[in-house]
Amino acid sequence: MILTIVVLFFIGYLAIALEHPLRVDKSAIALLLGMLLWVVYTLGAEYIVPLINLDGLQAYVDASPHLHEKSLATQCLEYVLNVQLVESLGEITQTLLFLIGAMTIVELIDVHGGFSVVTDKITTRNKRKLLWVISLTTFIFSAILDNMTTSIVMIMLLRKLVVNKKERWIYAAMIVLAANTGGAWSPIGDVTTIMLWVKGNVTASALISYVLVPSIVALLVPLIVVSRKIKGKLPNIVEHHVTNDPITTREKKTILILGVAGLLFVPIFKSITHMPPFIGILFVLGVLWTFTECFYNGKRLDVSREQRLPKVISRIDMPSILFFLGILMAVSVLQVSGVLSATAQYLDENIHNVYAIDLLLGTLSSVVDNVPLVAGVMGMYPVELIADPLSYEANFMVDGAFWEFLSYCAGVGGNLLIIGSAAGVIAMGLEKISFGWFLKKFSGLALLGYLSGALVYIVEIMLFK
Question: Can you give the C-alpha Rg of the chain in angstroms?
């Protein structure tokens, strides 16, 4: 059954990669894949669960008297449906709710002309200069916000600056690379760094000290190459002046500031309350919703000219949400079935070099989601409390090389494929970037940057640790 799951997973990913030749929407394939894998896993639960999750199964059965006399097949089925599926869906729902909240806030800013306040300040039409501005801004923002939200904001901003679709793909691809490299060195910049930081595997100071420079290098290498290939100027933006615009420039600025401040507040909210990020993003959305309701009540406009939130939310790209749901559901099956943990264990037993293992895990994160991958690795390797500084085990102590390098590799490694990160999936959904185009144009550059940054990190360890 496990072999069937793995084969179906790779067939599904291949179908997603061949979306355009097959002429089947990737969201449909991802959704079908995610649900199909759970069906297959459930059918084989009697054989898989006792091998992979015997302790969890036993604890569940002990706590459920009505299952004591039931068959093993029934016990396993109940465990999968009431524990594993519910827990997986809970984790996935948090990500989806965060995504929906962030996308709604961005759309709310957009429909009220908030982004025009920023784009009006970017007057350069020089393609090369604009590429650097967009990329460096994304790198900085993704360390403060999460890389998923940053990608949404920057791509929506990009739509106001670059009209040509093919040219916009180049900038969007660099946004993906910048978002992932920017999130890799910040304790709040990526879900995986948050996991490592919250669990105590790394400290914020060590993460910034040793991963920042490699992340900068991983961005600059492809950025320099791409910027040398583009020349000339973009055509001037055709401004559509709306007569009798009900939203003044001051009001646009107010909504922009409230929206961006709300997004910036989310990691602060998490650090204060220790609540998951989706609570913070929905709290901010509730504040903005209330503000816009009061705003339009005071305006007394015709209903057709109002942009209240129920109208704005209809603009959300639901196929992208469903694509994300399907992918995460599929990956969760690999996690609960032990495929990810087994892969990590195999690498450790056969390679036994933390740098090589992390590099391979980072490469693997371009195919499967880095969150369950890192979670599986964290579960396999306990944090060493005491170890000889020169021993192999010292790499697994708090702020050990394995954990720091894992943060870099899991974040930056997702750049190798467009489906390798949340930022890539967002760009793929919003801009309809094809898998093959990114593979041909940017995967090689991303790999070059990934390896260059990795080399810088190894040199840092040799010199300073």
Answer: 23
CA distances from 162 to 126, 228, 366 (A): 11, 18, 28
Q: Cα–Cα distance between 354 and 465 in angstroms, integer?
A: 15
Q: What is the pLDDT of residue 238?
A: 59
Contact 408, 387 (CB under 8 A): no
- On whether the CB atoms of residues 266 and 281 are closer than 8 A, the answer is yes
User: What pLDDT score was predicted for residue 225?
Assistant: 95
Task: Please provide residue 397's backbone torsions phi and psi, each rounded to the nearest 5 degrees.
Answer: -75, 170
List, for the chain, all residue ranges whose pLDDT scores fall below the cut of 50. Answer: 242
* CA pair distance 17, 451, nearest whole angstrom: 24
Residues 6 or more apart from 58 whose CB is under 8 A from it? none
Residues 6 or more apart whose Cβ sits within 8 Å of residue 57: 49, 50, 75, 76, 79
Task: State whether residue 16 is helix, strand or coil.
Answer: helix
Determine the Cα–Cα distance for residues 286 and 281; give it in Å rounded to an integer: 9
Q: Measured between alpha carbons, how far is 263 from 305 in angstroms, rounded to an integer?
A: 26
Report pLDDT for 237. Answer: 64
Q: What angle, 0 to 180 degrees and rounded to 10, lies between the N-to-C axes of helices 422-431 and 318-336?
A: 150
- Give me the numbers of helices (H) and strands (E) for the chain, helices first please: 24, 0
Distance of CA 210 to the CA centre of its chain: 22
Give dist(CA 114, CA 247) in Å, integer: 10
- What pLDDT is stored for residue 331 in this prediction? 81
Phi, psi (deg, nearest 5) at residue 385: -85, -40
Cα(178)–Cα(149) distance, integer angstroms = 13
Six-digit token string for 33: 């894949």
Query: Can you give the three-state secondary structure of 159-220, one letter per residue?
Result: CCCCCCHHHHHHHHHHHHHHHHHHHHCCCCCCHHHHHHHHCCCCCHHHHHHHHHHHHHHHHH
Q: What does residue 195 show for φ and ψ, rounded to 5 degrees?
A: -60, -50
pTM of the model: 0.71
Check residue 38 and give its pLDDT.
95
Within 8 A by CB and 6+ apart from 381, the residues are 348, 396, 402
